[in-house]
Write a structure and sequence with these properties.
354 residues; elongated; alpha+beta; 20 strands; four-stranded mixed β-sheet
């Protein structure tokens, strides 16, 4: 049995809970996860004893190479095509991915009169626990990320802008073997480092902290890592303390990562540590990583997740000082019995960029 067949079996097992006879999968990432087929315009209809792969003529030849599915050629507008033919293609009721289907698309699907039932996070929850093939793919992507950070230690950045350094790091990801960056490289320097999702711009890298957040995508799977550096000499005492606080909070939270741990409780360890010194906590502790760079489970104060062996998550507390700078230290880890497997074993001592 292939990995995809096993995954489809778990989807079929969920049909009864969903109150449906067929599950319509339209998120391209979930289509790939369940079938191995990569396309910007495809859907799966998963029933008790058949799986239909629906796509338009541009992808038809590639779709015919997919094992264990029946291929249906659609019009370019996929969901109106399905709506008109759902009664003949699928046994009702049909569950659909509510987070991925717009209201307009829902109307097109419902036009044929087939009973539709919204479903949430069905495939995403399956994706949260990785098999060994997926874990090895993520390890490879993490090794690429590590190579780029090691290269950064020898880079001359004085006078460069954030955007210039981000471009150089994106190129370095390709040089190290990435298919592409997992997300746009974040370089946030000086006061901009107090903005967690800052877009690298024209600011020159001068004195202060420099947050570098990057990841590689390789074989479809992502990595993610952040380190904070000093530039232009010693940091002001406020930022030096912020760095140590972030490092301590990260270490304490990381030590609590284990199967059965509450994601909310792990987040709270770092959250309380940072808040106790008067800093606002502006984002959660972390998130899952896999085919996408943001997946389940989330580690946040609103999370209801319980960590499980095979989860791959980031542990990335941040300490931000508006107007001055910021610190974020992020590791990518596999949740495992006996303690987390850290995939980004880079130094967390404060390093100086040249």
């Amino acid at each position: 049995m292939t990995a995809e067949q096993a995954r489809l079996g778990r989807v079929r097992a969920a049909l009864e809970t969903l109150g449906a006879a067929t599950f319509l999968v339209t998120d391209p990432v979930n289509v790939r996860y369940l079938s191995g087929f990569e396309s910007s315009n495809a859907a799966l209809l998963v029933g008790a004893d058949r799986v239909l792969l629906v796509t338009d003529g541009r992808y038809l030849e590639a779709a015919r190479d997919v094992g264990g599915v029946e291929v249906i050629e659609s019009a370019r507008e996929l969901l109106p095509f399905l709506g008109a033919r759902l009664a003949e293609l699928a046994e009702p009721p049909v569950a659909f991915e509510a987070a991925h289907v717009t209201f307009m698309a829902y109307e097109a699907l419902a036009a044929g009169g087939v009973e539709l039932r919204p479903a949430a996070r069905v495939v995403e929850e399956l994706r949260a626990v990785k098999d060994e093939t997926e874990l090895e793919a993520i390890r490879r992507a993490a090794r690429v990320t590590q190579a780029v950070f090691e290269r950064l230690a020898g880079e001359q950045v004085a006078g460069a802008t954030e955007a210039e350094l981000a471009w150089r790091l994106a190129q370095a990801l390709h040089d190290a073997g990435a298919d592409e960056p997992a997300f746009p490289v974040i370089v946030a320097a000086g006061p901009n480092a107090a903005r967690p999702h800052h877009h690298a711009g024209s600011a020159e890298i001068g004195a202060g902290t420099v947050i570098v957040d990057l990841g590689a995508k390789l074989g479809g799977y992502c990595s993610d890592c952040t380190r904070t550096f000093a530039s232009g000499g010693a940091l002001p005492s406020e930022l030096e303390r912020a760095y140590e606080l972030c490092r301590e909070a990260q270490a304490e939270a990381l030590a609590a990562v284990a199967p059965g741990a509450s994601a909310k409780a792990v987040d709270a360890i770092a959250r309380r540590r940072i808040a106790a010194e008067g800093h606002a906590v502006v984002h959660g502790l972390g998130h899952g990583v896999g085919l996408e760079v943001h997946e389940l489970p989330r580690l946040a104060d609103t999370s209801d997740a319980t960590l499980a062996a095979g989860n791959v998550v980031t542990i990335e507390p941040g300490v931000y000082v508006p107007g001055a700078g910021g610190i974020r230290i992020e590791d990518l880890v596999i949740v495992a019995d006996g303690g987390p497997e850290v995939l980004t074993p880079l130094s967390k001592r404060l390093a100086m960029l040249a």
